[in-house]
Fold each of these.
Amino acid sequence: MYSAWFKLLFELAIQLYETKVYTYYFDLLFEETLKRHHTKSSCHGFGKEVM
């Protein structure tokens, strides 16, 4: 995750919701990411090579 990019978002969320901000990271294999991508209606917008 790009912490510098999300820093302002997280700070705003903390201001709005106090300290009840949770973040999650999914450690998935690339094959699983592709499998999940193909289940989305937008899957034809880009494919494996771009990902």
Amino acid sequence: MTILVTGATGNIGRKVVDELVGRGVTDIRALTTNPAKAALPSGVHAFSGFIGKPETLDGAFEGVTAMYLAPYEPTAAEVLRRAKAAGVQYVVALSGGAHWQALADEVFAAGLDVTQLGPGEFLENFAGWAGQVADGVVREPYPDAGGAPIAMADIAAVAAALLAAEDRGPHVGRMYDLTGPEFLTRVDAVARIAEGIGREVRFEQISREEAEAALTAQMGDMAGWYLDLQDASRWYRQEANSLVEELSGRPATGLAQWASEHRAVFGA
């Protein structure tokens, strides 16, 4: 049983490879644009290709029974068509959930047995606060905005568990909205990071205009979109669930734990 991991050197795809190895899967094919620099675990076969260029995928699906599909909407339908034609039986797709409904619809329409993962905000996004945390003050406009952020490693653990499962039937056709272990407002998030790194950090509310001006330097036109999502989260709360533990067999990572494990990110 060959499992293909697309985006195998990306932030989540690389972790999927490691999780599969940890589960004892021995026949893993890793799709990467640069096999020489991939530094994949011993025994993992690197295949040169990119889902954004379907013409590079000739032979990638040969003998593959299951696949992790990284999110890339422009070519998702064509990649899935090729996978189906080659005999791939099962796909775990990171579709992004409600904010990426068009991609989710394409994946479900592919005619394959599919499970989709729709995580919320990544814990890794809080690395964007690194400079502010180092200064001891995080400044944002919506203290009551929030969600149940999830670690990329936990998403990968779920994907690997599904791909390696002997009985995938209960998961076919499902969209799993993965979350971290608790709902956190932005004020809560600052407190969890402070707890994790063992340093005092406080939250200070600023205006939307001030926040957008500060973020534009880092995010460009995406700054407004990012703040719109924060604003919307005040009214449409993403409550925490236990799907990570139920599907992967291990508890989801909390923000304090993640911050402690990545203290260097915050200069601690």
